[in-house]
Amino acid sequence: MKKQTRFFLTILCMVFLCVFAFSGYKLYSIIHEYRLDQQKYNGLSGEFVTQTDKEKNPAQTASPEEEGPREVSPISVDFDALMSQSQYVVGWLYSADTVINYPVAQAEDNFYFLERYIDGSYNGCGSLFIDCACFSDFSGKNTVIYGHHMNDGSMFASICNYGKQEYYDAHPVMYLNTPTQNYRVELFTGFITSADSSVYTFFFNSDAEYGAFLEKMKGFSDFDCDVEVGPEDRIITLSTCTYEYDNARYVVMGKLVPID
Questions:
Q1: Predicted TM-score of the model (pTM)
Q2: DSSP-assigned beta bridge partners for residue 194
Q3: C-beta separation of 161 from 192 below 8 A
Q4: What is the pLDDT of residues 229-238, one digit of tens each?
């Protein structure tokens, strides 16, 4: 009986060791894949994106109505070269001192870029992409950009940090470059919402309806700010998964201010 017990325990330990080894291998494979995917994007930014001259770039708080030179985007993107590699690219999103330094794409549906690089090849991190119902030139009132919440902190994982006031204070703006216009993105709200909430409204019947929408969204914000936004403004909404409840999303919204 003791021999049978010892034999059973030995087999059980071997099974546990095999499961542990396999789990460790799978975890390593996932982390390695994430690292390779991020390196691919880092190579892309190194090839097509350059930093602009900071001495020619006014403070982030500069207003386009103020006298003097207009603000210059902190990055310059070679869209001609980039778009020769991918027909899907519509812009580039950049947030200083964060991992967000990625191209933005658009496909005919909202599934294509969930696990694809901008050229259509497989990529576990997917790509940042705008909703297929939105205008590709960001001319709509509300353009939604989706991105994965990756466990390694890449893609849109960091936007969940806007749940803390100190993070917003350190990163109040982003920049969106497009082939035809560059923008400072003045963030004005960030909050948890459901995947089917009204935040994903793209079109509005009137300025009054749109203005009410903006006020409602700003009222949900996890952070305080003095950014004014009204019916005359266009906005972008950054959206990623969060895990407080089923189908929860964290969104950050910002108004587009044209710059050079």
A1: 0.83
A2: 248
A3: no
A4: 999 999 999 9
